[in-house]
Design goal:
four-stranded mixed β-sheet; homodimer; globular; 3 helices
Amino acid sequence: MEWFEQLRWGEDGLVAAVAQDARTGRVLTVAWMNREALKATVEKGEAVYWSRSRKRLWRKGEESGHVQKVLEVRLDCDADALLIKVEQVGGIACHTGRESCFFRKLDDGRWVSTDPVLKDPKLIYGEK
Amino acid sequence: MEWFEQLRWGEDGLVAAVAQDARTGRVLTVAWMNREALKATVEKGEAVYWSRSRKRLWRKGEESGHVQKVLEVRLDCDADALLIKVEQVGGIACHTGRESCFFRKLDDGRWVSTDPVLKDPKLIYGEK
């Protein structure tokens, strides 16, 4: 697995991973991968991240069904960030029910939500 | 500057910042911003990052002239990553002379360079 060791893993064992919708070109999510997550992503062909908050592997879509099917994995010049081109199942990447997690735009000194909620999170995750 | 404090700055005082070419849709770079870098980026309308290796502010293009003019700043749902849509001056974001830093693609267990060098780095930076 020489390709695997060419990455410059951070002191925390992580690299940043950007997911981009291969069809729309939209940047959907920025998340983190450790070695295990990247290995699982490549083997499974679906995005698996390391959740820094939950401190465990996070199979994207494990609850929501909004899996990211990986079409392409790219590495940047200093080998510490990944770009994965994905097919976003359901067209929803964000836990708020929006296409992209980057749904807020800086507008005249405030963050303005610009994107519609495509599906009520309660319908995605159930009442909590 | 309430918008500024809404970010969830990491323990190291940084957030990840993804630059995307507004015209081509290509993800160009993943870099880091601290408070000062973000402030400078918004004030100047050009990407300013925090260089983790050099431990100083890094005005993107300061040496190469390949400035990233900022058209839009977006924030993700958990407020710890930025997406900036940019006009990439010169059409070259990478220090290797390529459009994007993500010029390598994982192909059958190895990283394959898929993108052409648009300009010889020696012509960008001078002989070193």
